[in-house]
Design brief:
Blueprint: H1 2-93, E1 97-102, E2 107-112, E3 118-119, E4 126-127, E5 140-143, E6 149-153, E7 162-163, E8 166-171, E9 184-188, E10 194-199, E11 206-209
Antiparallel strand pairs: 1-2, 1-8, 2-5, 3-4, 3-7, 6-9, 7-8, 9-10, 10-11
């Protein structure tokens, strides 16, 4: 009887060991599968990173041109906004306003004609400052983006208005552009792309164009 009980106990132990071994083997297999899966994911990650590097190398120049293009458009819009401000002041104050341009430094600004010396090409007349030492309290001085160059083109056949010896757009008291003002202002970036500010046909202002006149 005792032998039968012992055999039964041994049989149960063997079964238990078999079950434990099977469970251990299943666990080991899952661990191996998980390890393989993780290694495959790492390879995928490396491939994705490599693809991103390749895509970035192609996209970076285009993105750089896009950013510079935005600087070009932003500067052109800022100049047009300053011209609108000059027209508004000329009409509201009943006095000529000038938007002067320094091609060498890239600076430009707005002030009343009476705050500086203006040379009129039609008559050769030189208008001296009449506002005293205070100048124009509403004057605005701006600087173009460092990546851009500013040029004055297509001056009038009869000459060009100068303000403190700098080319200038002159807005008359009725808001129109004086006939001696430059017909075109050009902004160019370091890649050679340009925007043109071209005088409208009726001399009511300037408009932005992607191509030259």
């Amino acid at each position: 009887m005792n032998l039968l009980n012992q055999d039964a106990a041994n049989h149960c132990s063997v079964k238990a060991l078999q079950r434990n071994g099977a469970a251990f083997g299943s666990t080991l297999q899952r661990c191996n599968d998980l390890t393989k899966h993780r290694a495959f994911t790492l390879i995928e990650l490396i491939l994705v990173l490599a693809m991103l590097v390749i895509i970035t190398s192609f996209a970076a120049p285009a993105m750089s041109r896009f950013i510079r293009g935005r600087a070009l458009d932003t500067e052109a819009r800022r100049m047009v906004a300053l011209m609108h401000a000059a027209q508004s002041r000329a009409v509201s104050e009943g006095a000529p306003m000038v938007l002067w341009v320094n091609e060498k430094t890239g600076a430009y600004g707005l002030c009343t004609e009476a705050s500086g010396q203006t040379t009129m090409p039609t008559t050769g007349q030189i208008t001296r400052p009449t506002t005293g030492q205070s100048g124009d309290p509403k004057a605005e001085d701006l600087m173009a983006d460092a990546t851009l160059t500013l040029s004055v083109l297509n001056t009038s056949m009869i000459g060009q208005t100068l303000f403190n010896n700098l080319p200038a757009v002159r807005f008359q008291p009725d808001g129109t552009v004086d006939e001696t003002s430059p017909q075109t202002l050009k902004l160019t970036d370091s890649d050679g792309f340009s925007r043109w500010l071209v005088e409208t046909r009726l001399r009511t202002g300037y408009e932005i164009r992607d191509t030259g006149p």
